Structures are given as C-alpha cells and as structure tokens.
C-alpha cells in the first residue's frame, strides 16, 4: 500500500513537494464543536477549512435568507467568507455587508473579496466600492479576480493594479493580497513568477483537475514551495451547489469535497444557497478525515477517461464561465 508521501510524490512529481504537502496538512487543527482550521500560507492566519462562497450567497432566494445563512455559518464556525466586486452587480457584497453589520459578526470573520480591475484608478474604485458595500474599514484578503487571459499577469503590473493594492495595504485597508483564476495553470504560474510575494492563490481543485490542465499538479507544488496559501474552488465542477461533477458522473458531493480537502489546500470555497446546503457542507467539514490514498487513486482512475478532455471543467476549456466584466475588459462580446 502506498504511503501518503508516495501519493503526493506521484501527484506533484518531487519528494520536496510531497514533504511540503504533508507539512501543510499536518497544520490542520480541530475546533471543538466547530470546523477545523488550517494556516493560510505565510500569513500565519488560521481560517476555516471551508469558505462560504460569495457568488452563491448572492443567488439565495432573498436577502433575508442569505443573511440567515451567513449568520448560521458564523455560528457553526465557517468564518472564512469569499466575495467579489462583480458578483451579481454588487448584490453579493451588499447582502454580506448587511449580515456582517450585525453586532459582533464582522470581527468573527476573515473577509475576502476580489478586485476586478487591472489598472490603478480602477482598482482604487473597486476597493472603495467593496468597502462601502461590505460596511467595513478593512479587507482581510483582497485578490485580483479571474486571471484567465494570458495578458492579465502583465496588466496587473504594467497598468498599476498591484501598486494600488500595495498602497491600500500600507494604508491598512487591505491586510493580504492574492489572485484567482480558473482557466489555465500557465497563467497562475506566470503570476507566481512575478516579483511579488503573493499571499494567496485561488484555483480549481477537484477530481477531474488531476487529468486536465491540472492546477493541483502544476500550481500547488509551486505555491507550497513559495509558502503561498492555496484556496480551492469548483470542487463540484461549478454550476449549482449540486455541481456538474456529481450531476454528470455519479461521484458524490461528499467524495468530491473529501478528495479536495485531502490535498494540501488551506480552504475550499463552497457554494451555499440554502440552509440545507450549509448543513451538508458543515457536516462534511466537521466529520472530515483525509481520504485514504488507495481511495484517492481508485477515484482518479475511475474518472480518468471522462476527465481527460475537460468536458466537466468547461470553465477551463471555454469562455462560457468568464465573467462579463472581464470579457469586456479584453474586448470580447458579452
């Protein structure tokens, strides 16, 4: 039977990456009555190993239900919140801001949102919009959103987006700086090669990803080496909270999430639109035990044929899931 180190060495391609992966997972700490936490890269911050996704909370049936879900999530220990400037044209941030304005809620949450601009003035506008909508004076993490076009890593530097982020950090409006993307590992690697010590990188992490434009094989080892916190997303393949992968392949949501959480990621963003979704994800996180390596290998072998052509990860192989703001940014039709 393979050891966990052997499994990681096969996935990541080196003994060093395997060792770093083991060290990262060993930092998981249980939270009595709550959700286990993990260290967020070099920041030394501890965050819940599942993160409430901002896009889906903005798609809840109404504001009152969204706020009820967010308050329940905090009470259950899901205290890492995700958002972005463009989600539902600002509605996600506005609803989250109202939820966090309740007495004592903001200080219990590690709050992340995303900057959709690449240039200096646009980034500053995004920041002020997000702070106003979220009703806060600081963001715990601000990430450059949707680095999905090959020119994006250059634009963030050349057009002044990073300069704006660093000024905001110096002013105390932003604590940590990262980036996200769902398209191609090459773009993430180009970002990681920039002359800036990114605090986080957010990327697709799922059972299909191991076989197609693989972030877990190509990007995660570099993040581990550079001590960049890895935030996973799309563990179910995107779409509704039920996800494309469970709907189209028969792999259960529980197995999808357990596989992703068994990799050396800090936290997994999960889509929650109802109390039922929240209860399911909280239960998976609370009861989490790493998937045995033999089971991971069996699962990867099972999905290999249908995973290798990207049919369940259309966010990588098409523009269908690129946000309209970013399509316009690059001159593409919406």
Topology:
Layout: H1 4-12, H2 15-26, E1 37-39, E2 46-48, E3 50-52, H3 54-57, H4 63-76, E4 80-81, H5 91-100, E5 110-115, H6 120-134, E6 139-144, H7 152-158, H8 161-170, E7 174-180, H9 185-192, E8 200-204, H10 215-218, H11 220-226, E9 229-233, H12 244-249, H13 253-261, E10 267-270, H14 275-286, H15 293-307, H16 314-317, H17 324-329
Parallel strand pairs: 3-4, 3-10, 4-5, 5-6, 6-7, 7-8, 8-9, 9-10
Antiparallel strand pairs: 1-2
The overall average pLDDT, rounded, is 95
Which CATH architecture? Alpha-Beta Barrel
Helicity level = 40-55%
DSSP strand content: 5-15%
User: Strand order within the widest sheet?
Assistant: 3-4-5-6-7-8-9-10
- Shape estimate: globular
C-alpha termini separation: 50 Å
CATH topology assignment = TIM Barrel
């Amino acid at each position: 039977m393979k050891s966990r180190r052997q499994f990681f060495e096969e996935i990541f391609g080196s003994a060093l990456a395997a060792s770093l992966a083991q060290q990262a997972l060993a930092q998981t700490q249980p939270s009595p009555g709550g959700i286990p936490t993990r260290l967020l890269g070099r920041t030394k911050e501890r965050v819940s190993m599942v993160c409430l996704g901002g896009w889906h909370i903005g798609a809840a049936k109404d504001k009152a239900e969204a706020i009820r879900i967010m308050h329940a999530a905090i009470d259950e220990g899901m205290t890492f919140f995700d958002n972005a400037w463009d989600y539902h044209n600002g509605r996600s941030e506005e609803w989250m801001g109202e939820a966090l304005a309740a007495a004592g809620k903001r200080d219990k949450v590690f709050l992340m949102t995303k900057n959709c601009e690449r240039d200096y003035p646009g980034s500053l506008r995004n920041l002020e919009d997000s702070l106003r909508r979220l009703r806060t004076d600081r963001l715990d993490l601000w990430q450059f959103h949707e680095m999905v076009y090959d020119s994006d890593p250059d634009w963030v530097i050349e057009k002044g987006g990073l300069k704006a982020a660093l000024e905001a950090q110096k002013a105390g409006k932003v604590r940590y700086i990262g980036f996200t993307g769902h398209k191609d590992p090459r773009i993430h690697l180009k970002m990681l090669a920039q002359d800036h010590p990114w605090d986080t990188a957010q990327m697709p992490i799922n059972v299909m990803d191991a076989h197609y434009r693989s972030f877990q094989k190509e990007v995660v080892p570099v993040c581990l080496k550079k001590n960049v916190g890895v935030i996973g997303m799309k563990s179910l393949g995107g779409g509704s909270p039920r996800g494309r992968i469970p709907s189209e392949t028969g792999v259960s949501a529980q197995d999808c999430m357990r596989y992703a959480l068994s990799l050396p990621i800090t936290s997994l963003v999960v889509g929650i639109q109802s109390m039922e979704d929240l209860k399911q994800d909280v239960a998976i996180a609370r009861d989490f035990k790493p998937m045995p390596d033999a089971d991971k290998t069996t699962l990867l072998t099972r999905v290999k044929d249908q995973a290798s052509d990207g049919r369940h990860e259309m966010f990588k192989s098409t523009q269908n899931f690129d946000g309209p703001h970013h399509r316009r940014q690059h001159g593409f039709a919406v």
